[in-house]
Amino acid sequence: MAEQKMLAIDLGASSGRGIVGSFNGEILSLKENHRFSNDPVIVNGRMHWDILRIFHEIKQSITKTVLEGDHIRSIGIDTWGVDYALLDEKGRMLSNPIHYRDTRTNGIVSYVDRFFTQKELYAQTGIQCMNFNTIFQLSADLRDDPEMVQRAARMLNIPDLLNYFLTGNMANEYTILSTGALLNAVERNYAFDLIERAGIPKRLFGTIVQPGTTIGKLLPQVQEETGKTDANVLAVASHDTASAVIAVPTQEDDFLFISSGTWSLMGTELHAPAINDLTAEYDFTNEGGACGTIRFLKNIMGLWLIQESRRQWRREGQEYSFAQLEALARECKPLQCFVNPDDPSFATPGNLPERIREYCRRTGQHVPESVGEVVRCIYESLALKYRYTAESIQKITALRPKVIYVVGGGTKDGFLSQMTADACGMPVSAGPEEATAIGNLMMQMMAAGEAADLKQARAIVAASFERK
After folding, report:
1. What is the pLDDT of residues 395-450, one digit of tens each?
2. DSSP 3-state helix, strand, coil percentages of the chain (rounded to 5)?
3. How far is CA 24 from CA 5, 6, 70, in A?
4. Contact 256, 298 (CB under 8 A)
5. Within 13 Å, how many C-alpha atoms sit on residue 276's CB side?
């Protein structure tokens, strides 16, 4: 068959890429054609996403497909979850989207308790309670800027917003929408009872579309900038973890995955949400996946702890590569101290190494002083959190997985993968590294009929990419 080409726009919390996928009927190959930094911007005490710069960079990637003669037939965008923009009745943004790490939602959970309890929220949505969930962010908007909410006609999550910028068509894609505690997990539709009790206008929420839906062609003015292309813009599994899970290279039904990056999303795949007293006690989340699946998982503060520590050392004039940090950690004495990676004190930007030391002082442990000791503490704490999560999943479900599949950028860190295997007592399969972009492309292939279902898509992934 003729080689088919597609473009995946994969946006992470710190960088974005355009990746052209080529499928020859058996093997999927990747070519990165554009990479750019994705830096939040703090203005007047608010942390925003620089969404217009992001859109500019997406157009640069599309332009390169035209200039390089790639003849892509479709484009899909995936991003992090929960964040959004509000648009007025003329389709104009009312504000740059605010970053989920912004402080405006500090204390918002107790504020929203006046409308419904956390127990009521979880019973309907099945979503882990985190103060940056979309329903909490919208409640903060309504509390702090009610005039803006009154002017708003639509809410679009980040990938839906970018699809709208490209095509002029608005839609709310299921997997990204499911991350924000706005959906009834069983009915897979809006939890309007809770939304209205919070005072959030129903008019903000449009038609929900499933992964694989065609959104439209590029607007004429976009094509003037990028060059002529007949590519369709698709709603893929546009939450980055939903895309990454498509790329888990397994044929098993009972498996554990860790989508390892800034966050560690650890869980399994179900065909129906699991919402009960035990899942609430362990604070598991039920997010929408591709092909009718549910991603039953836990959000764990992942390599953010390393990334933000590295930024602090850079501020202090010490520049370390990730490989150097791993090497320093290997030299240190093991099992000296541990932190809970999800402690709220680690959630915001700042001096992470000192916060880790303070945590250890407060809990009567050895205080990690050197760079290597801090990194080793983070690695070992993550590995043990993975073990706790794996055991919790097996306690809650009937699944008895034999392998943990680690996918995403964190697979480059072999030391952490080995610690995970050791701590959990089961083999770890690490790879593919570009799981999110690969899952994005596989969803485009399923929409085109080149992969019949998830199992066939995963078989193509397994045949195309190496694992450790």
Report:
1. 999 889 999 999 998 898 899 999 999 999 999 999 999 999 999 999 999 999 99
2. 40, 20, 35
3. 9, 12, 14
4. no
5. 6
pLDDT tens per residue across span 91-142: 999 999 999 999 999 999 999 999 999 999 999 999 989 899 999 999 999 9
| C-alpha torsion 20→21→24→25, nearest 10 | -150
For residue 9, CA distances in Å to 17, 55, 156, 311 come to 6, 11, 17, 26
CA–CA dist 373, 274 (Å, integer): 39
What value, to the nearest 5°, has the Cα angle with vertex 443 and ends 441 and 445?
A: 70
User: Annotated active-site positions, please?
Assistant: 240
Relative to beta strand 285-288, strand 404-407 is unpaired
Q: Which domains does the chain have, with CATH numbers?
A: 4-235 (3.30.420.40), 250-431 (3.30.420.40)
Would you mind telling me the total number of residues written for the chain in this entry?
468
Closest CA to 211 of 262, 160, 259, 169: 160
How many angstroms separate the Cα of 46 from the Cα of each of 40, 95, 295? 10, 11, 31
Longest dimension (CA), the chain: 64
Residue in the structure block whose two tokens are 């009929």: 449
Instruction: Note whether 431 and 468 are within 8 A (CB).
Output: yes
DSSP codes, 384-395? HHHHHHHHHHHH
Q: How far apart are CA 299 and CA 260, in angstroms?
A: 11
Give the integer Cα–Cα distance in Å for 93 and 178. Answer: 22
- Contact between 51 and 40 under an 8 Å Cβ cutoff? The reply is no
Cα–Cα distance, 262 to 12 (Å, whole number): 8
Quick check: 262 pLDDT over 90?
Answer: no
Q: How far apart are the first and last CA of the chain?
A: 31
Judged by DSSP in three states, 43 sits in: strand
Query: Residue 366 and residue 353: Cα distance in Å, rounded?
Result: 14
Q: Are 438 and 465 in contact (CB under 8 A)?
A: yes
- C-alpha span between 395 and 290 (Å, rounded): 25
Q: Is residue 209 within 8 Å of 172, Cβ to Cβ? A: yes
Three-state DSSP at 403 gives coil
CA of residue 137 relative to chain centroid, distance:
17
